[in-house]
Amino acid sequence: MITLREVLSGVRAEGYAYNHALGINQPAQLLLRSSRNDLRKQLPVGFHVLASGRAINLPLIPWLAIVDPDVTTTAQRGIFVVYLFAADLARVYLTVNQGVTAISNTAATTSTGTPS
After folding, report:
1. Residue 41: how many CA atoms within 13 Å on its side-chain side?
2. pLDDT bracket for residue 116 (50, 70, 90)
3. How far is CA 4 from the centre of its chain?
4. Is residue 64 very low, low, confident or very high in pLDDT (cuts 50, 70, 90)?
5. In contact, 41 and 55? CB cutoff 8 Å
């Protein structure tokens, strides 16, 4: 079973290059996504692990989030802890983020009467 420390240092130690334009099959993205189940087993019951690269658009930087289901189950709303990698993958930052996509979509629908 891979640990969080191994995932975070593994992305950096392997010297993976990252370019969001190259798609989801880059080594860094593959490691983040493949480690989700192992990491989830190490968290309190019910917590979720989210990884970048599962949506249609790949982010500019890779990330790994841990969410409390009592607060949110998605990176689109609520508050959650996320590890953000620098674009060159040399550094990783632990942050607390607030998802705003769901709020933005609701606001756009409310103001125009149709989804954006």
Report:
1. 6
2. low
3. 13
4. very high
5. no
- Overall number of domains in the chain: 1
**Cα(89)–Cα(107) distance, integer angstroms:** 34
Show the domain range for 49: 4-112
Q: Please write the tens of the pLDDT for every residue from 66-96.
A: 999 998 887 776 888 999 998 888 889 999 9
How many Cα atoms within 13 Å fall on the side-chain side of residue 22?
A: 12
**Two structure tokens written together for 2:** 């891979």
Determine the Cα–Cα distance for residues 76 and 38; give it in Å rounded to an integer: 23
Q: What span, in angstroms and rounded, lies between the C-alpha atoms of 92 and 112?
A: 39
| 3 state SS of 109 | helix
Amino acid letter, residue 52: S
pTM attached to this predicted model: 0.77
